[in-house]
Amino acid sequence: MHEYEAPLKPELAEIIKVKSETPSIKTFDVRFVDKKLQKQFAFLPGKFVMVSVFGYGEMPISISSSPFEKEFIQLTVNAVGNISNAMHRLKKGDLIGLRGPFGRGYLLQRFRRKNIVFFSGGCGLASIRSAVLAALAKKDMFGDIFLFHGCKSSKELLFGKEIANWERRNSLNACVSVDIPEKGWKGHTGFVTDLIEKKPLPVENTVVLMCGPPVMVKIAIQKFKDLGFKPEQIYASLERLMHCGVGKCGHCNIGREYVCVHGPVFSGSQIEKMHLEEG
């Protein structure tokens, strides 16, 4: 299960903890039954694994834990279909199948001494969280760190306490926005993309790493470009329906690109040549 040797056969993994994040999202801490596999497992933030829920099928899930965490792997799952709903019914001690990791992730080592803007919407924060944790673990390597996140309501806010802790420790500057404010909400209201022109951000020596719905990604990229960001300063993880993880089934292709192999993380320069409406 090394980063460059993603197998086609699922390996057994045990669920060691389940945490409810929102009414429809849970985070599963899982660990390979084979201790050697667990020790060898390595990945870059932004990569994903194929998760088998026995009796139901297989689905792609981004890894939400830090790549420096070796004791377990965290998978944050939104209950939106048969397989994900079946996984939500699993408990501590149950077994699942894992294969991967797959795809291309965020190459944080290339961004040394640069400012980083993490930008996410909805469940996209799960993938972004892995990159945030990696950057904070090596914070002296980077400049200022920003986090922008948007969700429909405060009830659907992922990792809210964790974001507050990051801010409290002055680890990063965070801005969270909800589409529909509830009573008592003191944060921003509106689409998260509206914050791009409202919050002062350094453009020089800065990179943007984002993950979220295709519409959000498309609008955000354009707004960052309007601020003066060049395409090569922007990296986005594109959400697509991935079935195989190895570029064979064709479900995730966008033109000539297979998201499961050539992505899911693409540079802004690559995205300019793609048609995000496809797939």
Task: Please characterize this protein's 3D structure.
The chain has 279 residues and is of the alpha/beta class. It has two domains: 11-102, Translation factors (Elongation Factor Tu (Ef-tu), domain 3, Beta Barrel), CATH 2.40.30.10; 108-237, Nucleotide-binding domain of ferredoxin-NADP reductase (FNR) module (Rossmann fold). Helix content is 21%, strand content 30%. It contains seven helices and 15 strands. It has helices at 35-40, 82-88, 124-137, 160-168, 214-226, 259-262, 268-272; strands spanning 11-22, 25-32, 48-53, 57-62, 73-78, 95-102, 115-121, 145-151, 173-178, 188-189, 206-211, 234-237, 253-254, 257-258, 265-267. The strands form three sheets. Strands 10-9-8-7-11-12-15 form a seven-stranded mixed beta sheet, sandwiched between helices. A six-stranded antiparallel beta sheet has the order 4-3-6-1-2-5. The model has no long low-confidence stretch (mean pLDDT 89).
Write the layout of secondary structure elements.
Layout: E1 11-22, E2 25-32, H1 35-40, E3 48-53, E4 57-62, E5 73-78, H2 82-88, E6 95-102, E7 115-121, H3 124-137, E8 145-151, H4 160-168, E9 173-178, E10 188-189, E11 206-211, H5 214-226, E12 234-237, E13 253-254, E14 257-258, H6 259-262, E15 265-267, H7 268-272
Parallel strand pairs: 7-8, 7-11, 8-9, 9-10, 11-12
Antiparallel strand pairs: 1-2, 1-6, 2-5, 3-4, 3-6, 12-15, 13-14
